[in-house]
UniProtKB/TrEMBL annotation:
It comes from Acrocarpospora corrugata. One of its GO terms (molecular function) is histidine ammonia-lyase activity. The gene is hutH_1. Its EC number is 4.3.1.3. It is found in: Cytoplasm. Its main location: cytoplasm. This is Histidine ammonia-lyase. Pathway: Amino-acid degradation; L-histidine degradation into L-glutamate; N-formimidoyl-L-glutamate from L-histidine: step 1/3.
Amino acid sequence: MLDDGYLRRVKVDGFVAVGPEALGFADVVRVARDGTEVRLTEVAVAEMVASRGKIEELAEGETPAYGVSTGFGALATRHIDPALRAQLQRSLVRSHAAGSGAEVEREVTRALMLLRLRTLASGHTGIRPKTARVLESLLNAGITPVVHEYGSLGCSGDLAPLSHVALTIMGEGVVRDADGVLMDAAEALKQAGIEPVELAAKEGLALINGTDGMLGMLVLAIEDLTRLLKVADISAAMSVEGLLGTDRVFGADLQALRPHPGQAASAANLRRLLDGSGIMESHRDGTCTRVQDAYSLRCAPQVAGAARDTVAHAAMVAGRELDSAIDNPVVLADGRVESNGNFHGAPVGYVLDFLAIAVADLASMSERRTDRFLDVARNHGLPAFLADDPGVDSGHMIAQYTQAAIVSELKRLAVPASVDSIPSSAMQEDHVSMGWSAARKLRRAVDGLSRVLAVEVLTAARGIELREPYRPAAGTGAAVALLRESVAGPGPDRFLAPEIEATVRVVADGSLVAAVEAVIGPLA
């Protein structure tokens, strides 16, 4: 579904090299989640030295240059005396480190730091190599600046989040060390043997003017959704099987009549997952009077396929952004230093919102399949709510409530953030992207999807086992078998929350997909 060039360009020597070329998706994930170390390349250092020379020429000249010898935003009309320019950079970072609210996740901040380092390594920002080296050292020492939930409008980049990182480079602010201990940045840097820097002309701006936060969250979401889309096919197959549906609608010839690539991939997965099912075979004898299955069963590859194509589009946009150098102004190859609007987060914000829509719809269909299992009027011979003794036991009645509550929230999270704009900086920045907000709500949506799919898997597994003596397909059977390693099968009511969480874990960590693929081979 996704271009392996984007997803799998991983360095093999134990670190991620950071230079002018684009990072791969897997590079970002390794650094953000696994703590893989980074190294600036020699080419990157040479590019930074060359562009720095251009900035120093401007700093010494008489012509005002934005970010070098002027104020910022609506204050760009003031020419700053050379004696005040170091203070200008310190003041910029301190004033812009104005985040508020909950601390964002470590993996998000590490992704943001890596992506900013990559832009610095492009040679278009005019930063000194020694300043970039501090950011490199922070990543390698596992020091993570405290970045807050609120503060970015997604235009002029993720200013407040990146400013909290820049503050750490100056030896100020609050961080967490490699063990997660909260401490002053100055103490953390001292313990790690990292010397903070006094920012020179333009360096403060170069550190904070990028889409790195929203892009980092987009890359992490694509990684998670690539896995969850396989889970969605597994859970759909389990439901089709347990609800005595038909797999004929997933035939390749039928899918070819509407040649969307995601739909074809999802349908192919469903065919393989259901291949050889004894449960499916049990109702192929002509006694079944149903002509068509409900949409939530019959149209599973159409919806999951559309979600796959949406992820593929988002990956294309993210790949382009990973190959970008976002700063304002930028140093061009011919030595010119030019203002621009590349920091506007619209391209990233749009696909973050688009993904939230796909996530909500995929979860909505999953919840509808779960609900069918619980209703005796629609589950074709299974007990009410899959309960052991309906009336005495409630079975999975309230598990569906949990699903429904999450789906309702996912629908709210699908409302686009990127259609909003609140002018800032005295109307100089009069249209903003809200891309950071789109990214934050997508992270919550991805978590919600994993929980909705987990409830479907848990419910469908019980439904499949209640079809005994008929046996499931090898693929769906592998999913049931993995689940039974941590969750008991049908029986009287038990404390259900831990069973849901155990299923969420195998969905979110990839164990469920791995167990199925170990039996039937890789899913598309």
